[in-house]
Amino acid sequence: MSMAARRLRERYGEGVLGFGQGFRLSVLTGFVSAGIMSVMVYFIYSELFESALQLRASQLHASLVSENPGMDFNLMKQRKDLISKLLSPVSLAIYYFVIQIVLAPVLAFFIAIFAMRRRRDITDI
Q1: pTM of the entire structure?
Q2: Residues 78-94, buried b or exposed e (16+ Cβ, 10 A)?
Q3: Which of 9, 38, 46, 125 could join 89 in a cystine, given CB atoms 3.0 to 4.6 angstroms apart?
Q4: Is the CB of residue 12 less than 8 Å from the CB of residue 110?
Q5: CB-based contacts of 76: which residues, under 8 Å, 6+ apart?
Q6: Successive 10-residue mean pLDDT values, the chain, 125 residues
Q7: Rounded CA gap, 76 and 65, in Å?
Q8: Nearest 5°: CA angle at 115, between 111 and 120?
Q9: Half-sphere exposure of residue 22, counting CA atoms within 13 Å on the CB side?
Q10: Among candidates 90, 97, 92, 65, which has minimal Cα distance to 79?
């Protein structure tokens, strides 16, 4: 996001970049990168690390059973299903996307403040 704002400022904006331009560019870049990264997270966890996710889900289920050995079977099955759903590649990609979408405007605000330049030096002419 900051690289996009700097590139716009230096290459196309002739060294001048307003807050609104920097903010809009950073937010759009943040949304696009959130989408791309969530798709990548999905493919990485569905293809490369699927066994690691299943192992982690079984570890969480085992710790859940060891904490409450007297839990009834239906509740145990519900919690096991919940753990499996939470650690699925689709849900991890959605979590990543939502977190990035929430953080993108905050980061864009700070990037726009630091990337903003209102005036040019006389030597730039």
Answers
A1: 0.66
A2: ebbeebbeebbbeebbe
A3: 46
A4: no
A5: 64, 65
A6: 69 68 84 92 85 79 77 79 82 92 89 68 53
A7: 7
A8: 165
A9: 25
A10: 65
> Helix or strand or coil: residue 70?
coil
Residues contacting residue 104 through CB under 8 Å, at least 6 positions apart:
1, 26, 27, 30, 31, 34
The residue among 106, 107, 115, 125 whose CA lies nearest residue 8 is 115
> Quick check: is 125 in a domain?
no
**Distance, CA of 61 to CA of 58 (rounded, Å):** 5
Q: Is residue 10 part of a domain?
A: yes
Q: Partners of 117 in the beta sheet?
A: 17
Q: Which domain holds residue 10?
A: 2-119
